[in-house]
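Query protein
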Amino acid sequence: MKVIVIEDEKPAARRLKRMAEDLGLDVLAMLHSVEESMEWLQSNEHPELIFLDIQLSDGLSFEIFENVEVKSAIIFTTAYDEYALKAFKLKSIDYILKPIDNDDLSIAIDKYKDLSQKPNESLQFDLNQIKQMLVNPLDRQFKKRFTIRIGQHLKMINTSEIVCFYSQDKGTYLQTNQGRSYLLDFSLEQLENILDNEIFFRVNRKCYINLDYIDDIISYSNSRLKIAIKSFDVFEIIVSREKVRDFKKWIE
């Protein structure tokens, strides 16, 4: 079976490629943006199956379908929580929640194979229905808690307890209002899809902050801002210059 992977996080794309090849799939290409994907699909024979991330580096992957008549079946790869995926409850659609594991991938591929062998089953989907569900803030529900593995135990942390999310030493962490940090399975890019942007704001490449825990906002060099957050002293939190304007709108 010939497939392509459309995923803007290159390490995640390489990992999915390896997993797919281990299951006997022929991965023709790994594409990382809307523009690159459209160019490839306009110039090449479409594969049987596409593994498609929703949020790409230059926009939502739905833009691909608005510009190219895609003839492949789609398996979405997404960080959206399952409760926010009502639009995927169509029999012709499957999705895999990140981080992807081998069992979920194998089940999704088996479902595609089963559907493709039934002549009366359509592998098309209602793009508008899915797009509305996932990008309309009035319809979306956001992640309310995270489950953290601590040894043999699982700890549930409500988002209301989280002062910030940050990346350090190739890991992504959350920090609670008790001053404790925990390693996550999510990247900051994946968090963008599941956090309520009225509460959390990504101030730079390394950090999301919770509005409710801002202690102080201080003018900083090069027209930037420095943020003091309760219980956080891992590093200085600086609002990058290109985000200052949006940040000021956000806090208002």
Summary: The mean pLDDT is 83. The domain at 2-135 is CATH 3.40.50.2300 (Rossmann fold). The radius of gyration is 20 Å.
